[in-house]
Amino acid sequence: MSLDVTELRAFYASPLGEVAQRLVGRTVHRMLGSVSGLRVMGLGYAVPYLGPVRHAAERTLAFMPATQGVTNWPVAGRSASCLVDPTMMPLPDSAVDRMLLIHAVEAVESPAELMQEVWRVLTPGGRLIMAVPNRRGLWARRDATPFGHGQPYSRSQLGRLMRETLFSPEDWAETLYVPPVEGWLTLRTASAWERLGTGLSLPFAGLHVVEACKQLHRPVAVQARKTARLGARVLVPVPAPVPGGA
Asked: What is the pTM of this model?
C-alpha cells in the first residue's frame, strides 16, 4: 500500500520524522559522496534527502509515483518534481548518474520492473542508493510511520532482487535503531540508539541502506567442460627395416 504524499510530508515535518531524516540522511549522503557535475534523481519520496545535493549537482530531479501523488519541489525557484509511472519514466536511456530510491521499492506492485527501469535510465557505471524497510525491524511493524507500509525486505531478499536486475551491491548499512515512538526520551537518545545498534550489529534496524552499481553485461554461467579420459598409453615396438628391402 502506497501512502499519499501529504502523509509523507506530514511525517517528515514531525519530530520523529526529523530524527529519521537526520539518521537516514547521514548514511545516504555518505554513500552518495560528491555529486559535483552529476545528474541526480530521487524516486519515490526522496525530497527530504535531496536538499543537500541540489546545489552541487548539475541537475537534480524528484520523480514521484502516480499512486502517491506529487508535491512541488523545491519550494523556491523552478520546480524539479514530476508525477510519473515509476516503471515507464519519461527519460532517455543512460540519463542519470546517481539514483536515490526512498519510499519506492516497498510500495510498487512489481519491484523487478521498477529496478529494470532504474537500470535503463542510469548511465554506465551509474550508482543507486536505496533505503528499504527491514522486515526484522520495529519500523516495518508500526504503520504510524511510512516505513510500516508496503513490503519490507530481508537483506538476502534485497540482494537477490538486485542481482536479478543487474545491480552489484557494493556497500550495505543499517540505520534507524531508535524505536519508532514519538516520546521525548526516545527522540533525545536517538543518536545513542544508533551508536549502540551499529556497534553491536543488532538485527532490528529499521532500514537497509544499499549502494549498488549498474552492471553492463548479464553474467553467464560457465558450464564445466567434460573431458574424456584417455587410456594409458602402450608402447608398441616397430620392427627395424631390413637392409636391401627384403
From this structure: 0.84
Q: What SS3 class is residue 119?
A: helix
Distance in angstroms (rounded) separating the CA atoms of residues 240 and 100: 82
CA distances from 147 to 110, 111, 137, 200 (A): 18, 16, 10, 23
Q: List beta partners, residue 130.
A: 101, 210
Separation of CA 13 from chain center: 24
- 15-32 and 5-13 helices, crossing angle to 10°: 100
Cell numbers placing 211? 549502494
Q: How far is CA 219 from CA 179, 192, 216, in A?
A: 40, 42, 9
Q: Is 23 exposed, middle or buried (0-12, 13-18, 19+ CB in 10 A)?
A: buried
Over residues 88-109, the pLDDT tens digits come to 999 999 999 999 999 999 999 9
Residues 147, 141: contact at Cβ < 8 Å? no
Average pLDDT over residues 177-193: 92
pLDDT digits (tens, 9 = 90+) for 138-171: 999 998 899 999 999 999 999 999 999 999 999 9
With cell 517528515, the residue in question is 12
Q: Which helix (H) or strand (E) holds 193?
A: helix 190-200
Distance CA 204, CA 185 (A): 19
Let me know how long the chain is: 246
pLDDT (tens digit, 9 = 90+) per residue, 76-90? Answer: 888 999 999 999 999
Angstrom distances, CA of residue 245 to CA of 67, 240, 241, 242? 98, 11, 7, 6
The C-alpha cell at 149 is 507500509
